């Protein structure tokens, strides 16, 4: 199947989907495996197993030990990496076009034949615990885990991707094997490639290399239930880190792009409302921005700011005022500017084979098809003032999330913040 843009899709007999995005003007290939599972597909007693599996797949197979995996890809000047999110896991590489077969063979070997050696697991568990400790020591990083947990308390979608230390310490080889066998099946996976690659060749290689995938097993993903709430962690830091957030729409919702336009308008650049009012006019922060995260059936809209302990009492009321003022005060010219910013970021990403590979891989997992660039740009163009205002009203109707780390005594009460937002 082709969408007319050079992107082609083939589904193999085992359910594995192969998607390619041909780029004639480059000499490289970016490729990888995208798996449609992540942290929210874990049972609570094994929180962190998806991320630990990602680490362990680099630690060797019967065909290659850990050193050979890294050595073989670097012998040809390539790069190999992976990541885990709450809904996806990815293993990917970038190489010269003549080394695409080697890169795919390494990724296929890791994904299907990882030894998950118990001795290696003992060492890698320690590495992940160090990673958790490093995140805890980085307030402008860990605050987003607390934000997610406060928005979705006691739920899979609210648990940290890295896992909790006491759980990670207990994860066994059997836990990892069970997770891989239960989730890494053909229908849950996409092989994606972008760059100087022929689709037929990629399909041929994937057919040869991915014959050992386990059969699909049924599992039920826990539905998300947004809650909202307040979390504060008093720490001896130079700055107070604050995230104020609201419920947003899921990735399939018709207002998905309108939410992104709203985020750009409110806090997406130096011309945004928050940057101009909070940093330029008042000098309250160095860093402030807004963001929107879209999950399968829900989402989050957030505003991050870092400020001094003496400024936080002024900062939060100003931010609340900017959010409350959105309704009834959105102008066409700022919507047009936000649309232009969003469209340019979409188009600029097309210049990178890795970004295009990741885009089609994720689109296949989320939408079941590649989404043409023209379609995405048209959806951005269709966002008008009414759509942005609709998103702002929906956001303000939800119970807010307030998350703060650092010297928090100057931050006004949660009830006062709610009142400023009309609750």
UniProtKB/TrEMBL annotation:
Keywords: Hydrolase, Metalloprotease, Protease
Domain Peptidase M16 C-terminal: 171-342
Domain Peptidase M16 N-terminal: 17-163
Pfam families for this protein: Peptidase_M16 (PF00675), Peptidase_M16_C (PF05193)
Family, per entry: Belongs to the peptidase M16 family.
Highest taxon listed in the record's lineage: Bacteria
Gene3D superfamilies the UniProt entry points to: Metalloenzyme, LuxS/M16 peptidase-like
Cofactor(s) needed: Zn(2+)
GO biological process, one term: proteolysis
Molecular function as annotated in GO: metal ion binding; metalloendopeptidase activity
Keyword Protein biosynthesis among UniProt keywords: no
Name of the protein described by the UniProt record: Putative Zn-dependent peptidase
């Amino acid at each position: 199947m082709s969408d007319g843009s050079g992107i082609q899709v083939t589904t193999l007999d085992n359910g594995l989907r192969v998607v390619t995005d041909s780029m004639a003007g480059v000499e490289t290939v970016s490729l990888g495996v995208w798996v449609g599972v992540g942290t929210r597909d874990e049972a609570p007693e094994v929180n962190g197993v998806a991320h630990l599996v990602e680490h362990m797949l680099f630690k060797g197979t019967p065909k290659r030990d850990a050193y050979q995996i890294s050595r073989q890809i670097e012998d040809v000047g390539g790069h190999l990496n992976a990541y885990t999110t709450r809904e996806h896991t990815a293993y990917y590489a970038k190489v010269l076009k003549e080394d695409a077969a080697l890169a795919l063979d390494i990724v296929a070997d890791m994904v299907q034949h990882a030894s998950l050696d118990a001795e290696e697991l003992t060492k890698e568990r320690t590495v992940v615990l160090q990673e958790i400790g490093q995140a805890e020591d980085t307030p402008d990083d860990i605050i987003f885990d607390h934000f997610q947990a406060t928005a979705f308390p006691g739920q899979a979608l609210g648990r940290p991707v890295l896992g909790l230390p006491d759980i990670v310490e207990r994860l066994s080889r059997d836990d990892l094997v069970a997770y891989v066998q239960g989730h890494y099946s053909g229908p849950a996976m996409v092989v994606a490639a972008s760059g100087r690659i022929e689709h037929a060749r990629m399909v041929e290689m994937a057919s040869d290399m991915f014959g050992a995938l386990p059969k699909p097993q049924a599992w039920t993903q826990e539905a998300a239930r947004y809650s909202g709430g307040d979390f504060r962690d008093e720490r001896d830091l130079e700055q107070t880190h604050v995230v104020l957030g609201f419920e947003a729409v899921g990735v399939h919702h018709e207002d998905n792009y309108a939410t992104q336009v709203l985020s750009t308008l409110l806090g997406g650049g130096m011309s945004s409302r928050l940057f101009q009012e909070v940093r330029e006019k008042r000098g309250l922060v160095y860093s402030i921005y807004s963001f929107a995260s879209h999950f399968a059936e829900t989402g989050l809209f957030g505003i991050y700011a870092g400020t001094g302990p003496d400024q936080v009492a002024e900062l939060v009321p100003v931010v609340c005022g900017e959010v409350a003022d959105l309704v009834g005060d959105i102008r066409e010219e700022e919507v047009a500017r936000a649309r232009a910013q969003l469209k340019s970021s979409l188009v600029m990403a097309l210049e990178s084979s890795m970004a295009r590979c990741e885009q089609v891989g994720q689109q296949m997992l989320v939408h079941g098809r590649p989404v043409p660039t023209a379609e995405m740009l048209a959806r951005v163009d269709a966002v008008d003032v009414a759509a942005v205002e609709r998103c702002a009203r929906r956001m303000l109707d939800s119970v807010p999330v307030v998350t703060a780390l650092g010297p928090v005594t100057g931050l006004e009460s949660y009830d006062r913040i709610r009142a400023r937002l009309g609750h």
